[in-house]
Amino acid sequence: MERYDYIFAGSGLAALMTAYKMLRSGRFGGDRILLIDPDRKSANDRTWCFWDKRTAAWDDVVGHEWEQAFFADDKAERTFALHPYRYRLIRSGRFYEKIKEEIRRHPNVSWLQDEVVSFADEGNNVRVITRSQEVVGHRLFNSLYSAPDDPRYPMLQQHFVGWFIKTPAAAFDPSTAGLMDFSVPQKGNTRFMYVLPFSSHEALVEYTLFSRDLLPKTEYEAAIRDYLSEKGIETYDIQEEEQGSIPMTTFPFWKRNTQNILHIGTAGGWTKASTGYTFRNTDKLSDRLVAFLSDDADFRRFHTAGRFLFYDALLLDVLWRSNQKGRSVFSALFRKGDPSLVFRFLDEETTLAQDLAIIWRCPKGPFLKALWHWMARHRYPI
Question: 205 pairs with which residues across the strands?
């Protein structure tokens, strides 16, 4: 039976980013590493966006970036500079090829195109069963998502359908990313349009909801058509489509960790619960994970929680109980003030005083009710 030092069950963003950083660190050249996934990871099957400051990280796979953005609701629209941040986009195909190019340089790394059926921590090693075989390893990183079934932790979905469109006439401002346009009908939910222009003729236009339930695909598509029509864009070609759903929850996935099995990515709670953003969090947490790894590292000690999880829990409680209030919450954050402070807050890099300044902008009543629910039921760990 094949034996490995590190096994990755699933090769999504978190697994590939962690493996890449392990290889680049130079510390794992003597370790056998195995990635297991039924997909060869070659297609543009998803798009990741994130904001960062002026660093060189991932520059070679960034497909586009914007230095200003706009936010809109039913009352007003605001365009603002993102400085010192940039809003950046990565198509998965380029990212996958970068990681696989690095893997090809390391003969100690193997890729098994197979599906993981089960895995278990047996104390001295972990056992992984796939459709075709069994493998044994010292440590396992699992990124295969398993939805929690615990009523103490409300779960919303960030769900969307997006069209990459091309227009015969100039229709977009390529210098400005439309992060949230809440001018669309809310219909009792938190709904917005997300518009990323690549040129005056090309853009990704995405209809996004933060809500409990997904919609029929035709409803997303009708909303995109209506939005484009309202903007005077009647003629366009759909070059590509994307569709997805990202869980938004403060469920403590890390409690599933064992001494030798670590849940990573969305399966480990690495997705930012209040926004659904994944790339930036994964970048930071994979750095910390590679630094954490050693022969005697107990994976149960990897997770650290703090006040930002508490903030996320309160927001999710508000949106769970009164989903239509999302527009007023996000409008309060972005309508006025310094947007770079909001980005630092969402990156969990603000001081407590800055946290309070941002929270004070939000509608007080819904959050006080959410706080009462938390205090009364002790629903969320901090």
Answer: 163, 195
Q: How does residue 100 score in pLDDT terms, banded at 50, 70 and 90? A: very high
Closest CA to 82 of 338, 314, 348, 281: 338
Q: Could you read off the pLDDT of 22-62 as tens digits, one per residue?
A: 999 999 999 999 999 999 898 888 999 999 986 777 999 99
Q: What is the pTM of this model?
A: 0.92
How many of the other CB atoms lie within 10 Å of CB of 141?
A: 26
Strand partners, 204: 164, 196
- Strands 86-91 vs 109-112: parallel, antiparallel or unpaired: unpaired
Cβ partners under 8 Å of residue 45, min gap 6: 92, 93
3-state secondary structure string across the chain? CCEEEEEEECCCHHHHHHHHHHHHHCCCCCCCEEEECCCCCCCCCCEEEEEECCCCCCHHHEEEEECEEEEECCCCEEEEECCCCEEEEEEHHHHHHHHHHHHHCCCCEEEECCCEEEEEECCCCEEEEECCCEEEEEEEEECCCCCCCCCCCCCEEEEEEEEEEECCCCCCCCCEEEEEECCCCCCCCEEEEEEEECCCCEEEEEEEEEECCCCCHHHHHHHHHHHHHHCCCCCCEEEEEEEEEEEECCCCHHHHCCCCEEECHHHHCCCCCCCCCCHHHHHHHHHHHHHHCCCCCCHHHCCCCCHHHHHHHHHHHHHHHCHHHHHHHHHHHHCCCCHHHHHHHHCCCCCHHHHHHHHCCCCHHHHHHHHHHHHHHCCCCC
Question: How far, CA to CA in Å, does 275 sit from each of 14, 70, 156, 159?
Answer: 17, 17, 10, 11
Query: What φ, ψ does residue 363 adopt, rounded to 5°?
Result: -55, 130
pLDDT recorded at residue 380: 47
